[in-house]
């Protein structure tokens, strides 16, 4: 079943749209607060489709992702009971939230950096940072560093690899996509 290849083809078409950078900014912001799909799935095709703008897209993604992280921080700080808790329950993130609290207690600043760079759900950590009233400036600095490293790495790989990367990515996209889905399910079952 070529589900991921079809989605990738659509993303390449959308990446050429004149409003693609605005959509990328909006998705970057939303992904850091509540949106469940990583913004990389939009950034990578845009960087491949327009390699001369790859780093500009990475910068845009980084800025709006950090701004979304700041919104998540204040959401956690100011509206945990009425908004965040019901959302955590609805999306099934309660266990992730407890895990995030434990990680903050153990590693502090480094948790935000790790969540910003890795595929760990950054949004859970932004909200948790606000709930726990983690120091704001270190939170922002860790977010800037972690998110920028991640998105510039994606942009660089897509720009550097160009048509060869696109060919190999396209060839193995469904295998990679289904492997990531399987890994996510396994991680969920282990954490749960």
Helices and strands, with pairings:
Elements: H1 3-15, H2 20-31, H3 40-49, H4 54-78, H5 80-91, H6 94-107, H7 109-117, H8 122-131, H9 136-191
Helix pairs in contact: 1-3, 1-9, 2-4, 3-4, 3-9, 4-8, 4-9, 6-7, 6-8, 7-8, 7-9
Features:
VTT domain-containing protein; mainly alpha; 0% strand; 9 helices
Radius of gyration: 17 Å
Can you tell me the number of structural domains? 1
**Topology order in helix (H) and strand (E) letters:** HHHHHHHHH
Q: Pick out the low-confidence regions.
A: none
Structural classification? mainly alpha
Oligomer: single chain
Strand count, sense and barrel status of the largest sheet are: none
Keywords: Membrane, Transmembrane, Transmembrane helix
Protein name: VTT domain-containing protein
GO cellular component, one term: plasma membrane
Transmembrane segments: 55-80, 100-117, 124-146, 175-191
Can you put this structure into words, describing what you see?
- It is built from nine helices and no strands.
- The chain is an all-alpha fold and 192 residues long.
- The longest helix is centred in the C-terminal third of the chain and has 56 residues, at 136-191.
- It starts with a helix and ends with a helix.
- It holds the Pfam family VTT_dom.
- InterPro entries: DedA_domain, VTT_dom.
- Residues 41-157 form the VTT domain.
- This is VTT domain-containing protein.
């Amino acid at each position: 079943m070529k589900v991921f290849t079809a989605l990738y083809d659509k993303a390449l078409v959308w990446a050429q749209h004149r409003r693609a950078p605005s959509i990328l900014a909006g998705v970057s912001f939303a992904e850091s607060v509540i949106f469940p799909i990583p913004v990389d799935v939009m950034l990578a095709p845009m960087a491949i489709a327009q390699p001369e703008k790859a780093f500009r897209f990475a910068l845009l993604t980084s800025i709006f992702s950090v701004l979304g992280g700041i919104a998540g921080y204040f959401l956690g700080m100011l509206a945990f009971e009425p908004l965040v808790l019901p959302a955590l329950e609805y999306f099934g993130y309660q266990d992730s939230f407890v895990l995030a609290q434990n990680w903050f207690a153990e590693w502090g600043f480094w948790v935000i950096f790790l969540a910003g760079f890795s595929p760990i759900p950054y949004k859970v950590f932004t909200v948790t940072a606000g709930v726990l009233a983690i120091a704001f400036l270190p939170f922002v600095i860790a977010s800037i560093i972690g998110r920028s490293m991640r998105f510039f790495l994606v942009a660089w790989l897509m720009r550097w690899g160009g048509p060869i990367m696109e060919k190999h990515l396209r060839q193995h996209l469904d295998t990679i996509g289904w492997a990531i889905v399987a890994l996510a399910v396994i991680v969920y079952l282990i954490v749960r």
